[in-house]
Amino acid sequence: MQGEPVNSFPRLAPEAERGEVRRITVVGEEILHRRCREVTEFGSAELAKLIDDMFATNQVAEGAGLAANQVDVDLQLFVWDITDDWGVRHVGHIANPVLDEVPAEHRRLVEEPEGCLSVPGPYRVVPRLDRAVVRGRDKDGDPLVIEGRGYFARCLQHETDHLRGHLYVDRLAQRERKAALREMRDTQDEVFARRAAVARQLGK
């Protein structure tokens, strides 16, 4: 939890239990395509509420992580609730994240399918580093360092990209990007219906 191991954790994170579901922005909306503002006010009830709502929204959408601009908030903040390749669950949030540069001798790219809650439906193969270290602050302004490998590393890179105004489809060749967006248009209604069904099941 938040970079520290715990003995047990509920299936539904307490933040998701408390939070309300917000609308997820979709590729093409302006807020997804520009760099977000840094978080400057820590320890506020508003920031805590936003984090709770992001966890609830991510839970309903069955996501691994969610950035603030995906709920139409212009802040450098993301949350995650993800089980990695080794069966370890990671739950947390980070504000103003900065990815460490990985030395060339330790850079290993892995090509795996990747999706996005703001591109509902399609998955495409995207190369990502198999290890990531991200530094930032928690909701109270305390320094935070999170390290991930494999799928969790992919999540940390994907969400940090969001806060810079980039989506995974921006990493695709033009033809592949167009194909992914066509697929999204064909499948998004089904995805939205599934999210609504999960929300009803959770009483959200």
Would you give an account of this structure?
By secondary structure, the chain is α+β, with helices and mostly antiparallel strands. The protein has one domain: Peptide deformylase (Peptide Deformylase), CATH 3.90.45. Helices cover 31% and strands 26% of the residues. The protein has helices at 14-18, 45-60, 150-163, 174-201, and strands at 65-67, 77-83, 89-99, 109-116, 119-129, 131-137, 143-149. Strand 4 and strand 5 (119-129) form a beta hairpin. The protein is globular, with a radius of gyration of 16 Å.
What is the gist of this entry?
Helices cover 31% and strands 26% of the residues.
Number of helices: 4
Counting structural domains, the number is 1
Secondary-structure element series:
HHEEEEEEEHH
Beta strand count: 7
SSE class = alpha+beta
How many angstroms separate the termini? 24 Å
User: Largest sheet, if any?
Assistant: 5 strands, antiparallel
CATH-derived topology: Peptide Deformylase
Overall pLDDT confidence: 95
CATH architecture: Alpha-Beta Complex
Principal-axes geometry comes out as: globular
Q: Secondary-structure map with pairings?
A:
Layout: H1 14-18, H2 45-60, E1 65-67, E2 77-83, E3 89-99, E4 109-116, E5 119-129, E6 131-137, E7 143-149, H3 150-163, H4 174-201
Q: Which keywords apply here?
A:
Peptide Deformylase; alpha+beta; 204 residues; 31% helix; single chain; globular; 4 helices; two-stranded antiparallel sheet
